[in-house]
């Protein structure tokens, strides 16, 4: 079995939405790499009784309890005094911690205040984790085979402690299972349909394997996880299962793990020494923003014409006014003309164009809100298709941009 870990973040600022808890996500990622399983993450206000209650509940579930926050020098920071009560401990002055605080203030040209001097007072039943980049030390408690570690809530301070002290020590102290993860990224198929297509493979997975479906706008991530003590055997089986899954979803899979569609498309263009431009109506530059988010995209991306109004489509992209009159801006004829027009104007090898109704109004019975036409063009070839992408404006714009990128990827691979 893997070793169970629970993370508790302390602070009213998290619960009122003043700050976002990024500490827990980072810790969970790192713990996983070391073979530890995070089974629960919770946030607690600066209240002694609630903190104690959270600790009681956590120790019933986990072998290791990691705590961040509430270690500052002010009256609203209650974690240290609460831990003293919880472990029947008394505060004592630690000279080494004080030297760390003093040095930090000296480097900043400041004098240590009485409040900051109190940072050197630590529970006498804890092992001190020195903080070289902040004033609040970490505290390591052990009780009835369980480990409790309290760290500052400042992300940089917490990460330094975790990387330099806590994770290496936990790895020494516990023999944990290996945990393997691999994620395949799909676009253009819904979660439920995808699940049906791979159900036979999923049902035959070994007991120590688990598949997670992680849907987002027009995309589904498939994360396969496996645990085991024999690394070589686990890795061999894991690779075979990933290869099988890859074969089953190849029609929809655009990348793996940390890939993004814009990066995948950019790499394809760069390796083929090709250029691209975009003509956007309903996406309003969102597609261009995605493409240019990739460092080095200037090597293959020449620019965009955001042709929101019909006169812009006519004047800049040379769309035939008769097509706009007869078929409307949201049509095969117009979107294909936009793609060919921007490709000609910016002299690129490829072009992508979008035209649709993002909403919330503007839809009709024949052209409802969420209808988007997308066209891909190269010299002598144009492909276009319409999609119904829902009725939420933000989601329609995001979904259209992602769908356009994936359509272009498949166009380059001659799959469409």
List the helices and strands and how they pair.
Layout: E1 3-10, H1 12-15, H2 23-33, E2 36-44, H3 48-61, E3 64-68, H4 79-86, E4 91-93, H5 95-107, H6 114-117, E5 121-123, E6 127-129, E7 138-143, E8 146-151, H7 155-173, E9 178-187, H8 191-197, H9 199-203, E10 209-216, E11 219-228, H10 231-248, E12 253-256, H11 261-271, E13 276-280, H12 286-292, E14 301-306, H13 310-317, H14 321-327, H15 332-346, E15 350-356, E16 371-378, E17 381-388, H16 393-412
Parallel strand pairs: 1-2, 1-3, 3-8, 13-14, 13-15
Antiparallel strand pairs: 4-5, 6-7, 7-8, 9-11, 9-12, 10-11, 15-16, 16-17
Helix pairs in contact: 2-7, 3-4, 11-16
Brief overview:
The chain has 416 residues and is an alpha/beta fold. It has helices at 12-15, 23-33, 48-61, 79-86, 95-107, 114-117, 155-173, 191-197, 199-203, 231-248, 261-271, 286-292, 310-317, 321-327, 332-346, 393-412; strands spanning 3-10, 36-44, 64-68, 91-93, 121-123, 127-129, 138-143, 146-151, 178-187, 209-216, 219-228, 253-256, 276-280, 301-306, 350-356, 371-378, 381-388.
Task: List the main descriptive attributes of the protein structure presented here.
416 residues; alpha/beta; Molybdenum Cofactor Biosythetic Enzyme, Chain A; Alpha-Beta Plaits; Maf protein; six-stranded mixed sheet; five-stranded mixed sheet; elongated
């Amino acid at each position: 079995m893997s070793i169970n870990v629970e993370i508790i973040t302390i602070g009213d600022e998290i619960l009122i939405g003043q700050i976002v808890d990024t500490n827990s996500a980072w810790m969970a990622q790192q713990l996983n790499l070391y073979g530890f399983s995070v089974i629960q993450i919770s946030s607690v206000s600066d209240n002694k009784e609630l903190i104690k209650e959270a600790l009681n509940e956590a120790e019933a579930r986990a072998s290791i309890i990691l705590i961040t926050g509430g270690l500052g020098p002010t009256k609203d920071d209650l974690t240290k005094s609460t831990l003293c009560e919880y472990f029947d401990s008394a505060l004592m002055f630690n000279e080494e911690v004080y030297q760390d605080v003093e040095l930090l203030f000296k480097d900043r040209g400041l004098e240590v205040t009485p409040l900051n001097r109190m940072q050197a007072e630590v529970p006498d039943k804890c092992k001190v984790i020195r903080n070289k980049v902040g004033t609040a030390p970490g505290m390591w408690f052990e009780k009835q085979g369980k480990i409790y570690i309290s760290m500052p809530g400042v992300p940089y301070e917490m990460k330094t402690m975790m990387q330099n002290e806590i994770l290496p020590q936990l790895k020494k102290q516990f023999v944990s299972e290996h945990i393997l993860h691999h994620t395949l990224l799909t676009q253009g198929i819904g979660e439920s349909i995808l699940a049906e297509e791979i159900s036979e493979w999923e049902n035959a997975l070994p007991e120590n394997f688990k598949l997670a479906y992680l849907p987002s706008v027009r995309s589904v991530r498939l994360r396969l996880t496996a645990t085991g003590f024999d690394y070589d055997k686990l890795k061999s089986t894991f690779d075979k299962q990933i290869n099988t899954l890859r074969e089953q979803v190849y029609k929809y899979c655009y990348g793996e793990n940390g890939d993004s569609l814009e990066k995948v498309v950019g790499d394809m263009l760069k390796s083929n020494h090709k250029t691209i431009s975009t003509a956007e109506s309903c996406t309003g530059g969102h597609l261009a923003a995605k493409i240019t988010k990739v460092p080095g995209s200037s090597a293959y991306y020449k620019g965009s014409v955001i042709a929101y109004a019909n006169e812009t489509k006519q004047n800049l992209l040379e769309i035939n006014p008769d097509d706009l009159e007869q078929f409307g801006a949201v049509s095969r004829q117009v979107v294909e003309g936009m793609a060919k027009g921007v490709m000609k104007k910016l002299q690129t090898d490829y072009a992508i164009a979008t035209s649709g109704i993002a909403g919330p109004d503007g839809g009709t019975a024949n052209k409802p809100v969420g209808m988007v036409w997308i066209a891909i063009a190269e010299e002598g070839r144009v492909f276009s298709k319409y999609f119904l992408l829902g009725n939420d404006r933000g989601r329609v714009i995001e979904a259209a941009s992602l769908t356009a990128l994936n359509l272009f990827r498949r166009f380059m691979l001659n799959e469409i």
